[in-house]
Write a structure and sequence with these properties.
The protein is globular and about 65 Å long. Strands 1-5-4-3-2 form a 5-stranded antiparallel beta sheet. A two-stranded antiparallel ribbon has the order 6-7. It has 3 domains: 82 residues, Arc Repressor Mutant, subunit A, CATH 1.10.10.60; 81 residues, TATA-Binding Protein (2-Layer Sandwich), CATH 3.30.310; 171 residues, Endonuclease III, domain 1. Helix content is 49%, strand content 9%.
Length: 391
């Protein structure tokens, strides 16, 4: 608790008061509830022994696990497992399979279409109707397969260490923006006559996020002023030359995306990017590696913007794209984005940055979601799921 409070800039007493006031429970109670929910997920969706479940959910002992499960769910672990209905066998041997719920509605075409169209060979792929990727986790490597369903996202996880399950789930939820409030977004954006028809046609668009802020920032820099295909090519070369190799028994994934620490020691001249991008990428990975730039979940959005703006080669477009997709700022607005301006012009909106910025004030605090609707109005592969389907 002391470490969490320090990370957030509060005293432990202030943190306790804030959490109790906002959610009705202190940090220790919330952590206990999280462990209990993770345990229930493992009990109901896997055949792991209860000892492995307790260990994977973060309990210090079997006794603590049993006592907590009984207290929270008014049932023993054996009773919970006995109540489960027939579960679908995972497509991958050894995978943990479960549902990721979300607030309906969810429009999967642009969300999964974006992830598919920008997938970096080696660490991401689309296979058998699922978006798959590698995960670098605290205790080991993970491979996840995500499939959009009517009322949930089907998630299959293969983990080196089951203790990484809560972290892996949290990262998948951030990647897919599953904790968004689509009703609030719909109400706000429908007030603009230009956007209202787009929102009515496809409520529930999400902002494609990331499993790792540093990875996303590097990929944004690689995508500066080049096509989606070129950005993928640059990133794939980086992954192949500097990523950590992995074994994927169910697909063609080969590497983890390299960390900032991996890249900071690399000669910038070896980066497979245009020369103008060398200095920018080298400065970014150095700042990420030494903590000058913080893109972790919970990072201060305004502080991160200032940190990014101070780096050579990071302009407003890159900063806002990183804020929107890595930091999860729902009001981030890359007004200079060509796709945003093109779609705005097609809708009859002013397409100069200054005029569009002024108009977009009516979209606050959801400008990042307005961007998704503008992009969705374009004829682009990011708007098609599954890939290759005729729109």
């Amino acid at each position: 608790v002391r470490g969490l409070a320090a990370r957030l800039g509060y005293s432990t007493r202030q943190l306790e008061r804030l959490l109790v006031a906002e959610v009705g429970a202190g940090p220790l109670s919330l952590a206990r509830a999280q462990r209990a929910q993770t345990a229930r997920l493992l009990i109901e969706t896997t055949d792991l022994s209860f000892a492995d479940v307790a260990f994977g959910a973060g309990f210090a002992s079997i006794r603590q696990f049993n006592d907590t499960v009984r207290a929270v769910f008014d049932a023993t672990p054996t009773q919970l497992r006995g109540r489960r209905s027939g579960r679908t066998a995972p497509a991958t041997a050894g995978a943990l399979t479960f549902r990721l719920p979300f607030r309906s509605p969810l429009a999967p075409d642009t969300l999964f279409g974006h992830l598919a169209a920008t997938a970096v060979p080696g660490c991401e792929e689309v296979r058998d109707g699922a978006y798959r990727r590698t995960l670098r986790l605290p205790a080991g490597v993970g491979i996840v397969a995500l499939r959009p369903m009517v009322d949930h996202v089907r998630c299959e996880l293969v983990l080196d260490d089951v203790r990484d399950l809560p972290t892996a789930i949290a990262r998948c939820r951030r990647l897919l923006d599953l904790d968004a409030d689509p009703e609030a977004v719909t109400v706000a954006l429908s007030e603009d006559p230009a956007l209202a028809p787009l929102v009515a046609a496809a409520p529930g668009r999400r902002i494609p996020g990331t499993v790792d802020g540093a990875e996303l920032a590097v990929r944004i820099v690689l995508g500066q002023q080049v096509s989606t295909a070129a950005a993928r090519t640059h990133a794939a070369r980086l992954v192949a030359s500097h990523g950590t190799p992995v074994v994927d028994p169910a697909g063609s994934l080969t590497h983890l995306f390299p960390t900032a620490e991996d890249l900071v020691a690399v000669d910038p001249d070896t980066f497979s990017v245009p020369t103008a991008r060398h200095r920018c990428l080298a400065g970014l990975v150095a700042a990420l590696a030494d903590g000058t730039v913080d893109l972790d979940p919970g990072a201060d959005w305004d502080a991160a913007r200032l940190q990014l703006d101070a780096l050579p080669g990071i302009g407003p477009w890159s900063t806002e794209m990183i804020a929107m997709r890595a930091l999860g700022d729902p009001d981030a607005f890359p007004v200079g984005d060509l796709g945003v301006r093109t779609a705005a012009a097609q809708l009859g909106l002013a397409d100069t940055p200054a005029a569009l910025e002024a108009h977009a004030s009516c979209w606050r605090p959801w400008r990042g979601y307005a961007v998704q609707y503008l992009w969705a109005a374009l004829d682009h592969p990011i708007n098609t799921w599954p890939p290759g389907r005729q729109p």
